[in-house]
Amino acid sequence: MRRSQRLVVLTQFFLENPYTHIQLSSFVSRMEASKTSISEDLGILNDVFTAEGTGYLDITAGAQGGVKYIPSMSHDNIHDFIGGLCKQLEDPSRLLTGGYLYMSDILGYPHTVQQIGRTFASEFADRDIDLVMTVATKGIPLAYAVGQYLGVPVVIARRDPIVTEGSSVSINYISGATRKIQTMVLPKRSLTIGSNVCIVDDFMKAGGTITGMINLLKEFDANPSAIGVLAEADDEEDERIVEDYTSLIKIMDVDDRQGRISVQPGNIIQQNK
Fold first, then answer.
1. H or E segment at 269?
2. Where would I find the beta strands (DSSP E) of 34-180?
3. Inter-residue contact 47 to 213 (CB < 8 Å)
4. Quick one: CA torsion of 229, 100, 89, 109, rounded to 10 degrees?
């Protein structure tokens, strides 16, 4: 392969296989190129990834050395993306009766979901995450996006057990939205003891659902190493029972009578300063 061809193949591989460690010899045999040429190619790609703020290549030397792609987003890219989300959600046409805000379409755009996943993956890159966990149903696309960019599997807690998933562990928790006791279940085969888990959800009020997932992880002796929420409600801060989390946006005010919506960046901006 010529260099231009190799760069295309390498770029595609890294973008589709984040956190996958591969030895340089695999590329040498596949592309019929010398190890020196492949090393130069990797240097070019690393410079471009870094300059564009989309990640970097972690290259290790030695007989067992190799390379893996670590996705990330620069602070400027994160700020611009979240600013766009806030502006999009402040559209008065999103107001619903009862003071609710229509957000479901945000999770319907694959590109937006991918950017959300990349943002969280960038924030949690140093947490040594083993898998991503969410609760059905709206958090599922977000969890898969985060899992894709962290290169780890996804597990989904549900309200009711599914026969085809085998025996399950269940807990009761108080929902932050309805203040009612609900049930959350997770198949016993989903987790291994000591797993480092990234919890992802689309919306958080008081934090009852996330607390339920944390308590469910305790049944598996697993560790809630990171918590990411797309949106948090500002009016529930005094009653919030979850403290260590990362949010992308904060819903400050929703007034359907006056047609007013106020959305601000979440605490991720402060965490990036």
1. helix 268-271
2. 55-60, 66-71, 95-96, 100-101, 131-135, 154-157, 168-174
3. no
4. 70
Residue 51 CB-density burial (10 A; 0-12 exposed, 13-18 middle, 19+ buried): exposed
pLDDT reported for residue 160: 87
Element (H, E) at 181: strand 181-187
Nearest to 14 by CA among 46, 39, 37, 36: 46
CB atoms within 10 A of CB 54: 17
- 62-71 pLDDT, tens digit per residue, is 777 799 999 9
Report the alpha-carbon distance of residue 95 to residue 90 in Å, rounded.
Answer: 9
Instruction: Please tell me whether the peptide bond between 137 and the residue prior to it is cis, using omega within 30 degrees of 0.
Output: yes
Q: Nearest-CA neighbor of 200 among 213, 182, 217? A: 213
With residues binned 3-state (H G I as helix, E B as strand, rest as coil), the percentages for the chain, rounded to 5, are 40, 30, 30
Q: Considering only CA atoms, which of 173, 159, 169 is closest in space to residue 189? A: 169
CB of 254 closer than 8 Å to CB of 235: no
Structure confidence at residue 176 as a pLDDT band (50, 70, 90): low
Non-local CB neighbours of 153 within 8 Å, separated by 6+ positions: 131, 132, 147
Q: What is the pTM of this model?
A: 0.91
- Give Cα 272 to chain centroid, integer Å: 16
pLDDT (tens digit per residue) in 6-58: 999 999 999 999 999 999 999 999 999 999 999 999 999 999 999 999 999 99
**Owner of token pair 């697993």:** 222
Q: What is the pLDDT of residues 95-148, one digit of tens each?
A: 888 778 898 899 999 999 999 999 999 999 999 999 999 999 899 999 999 999
For residue 64, give both structure tokens.
């067992």
| Alpha carbons 114 and 166: distance in angstroms, whole number | 31
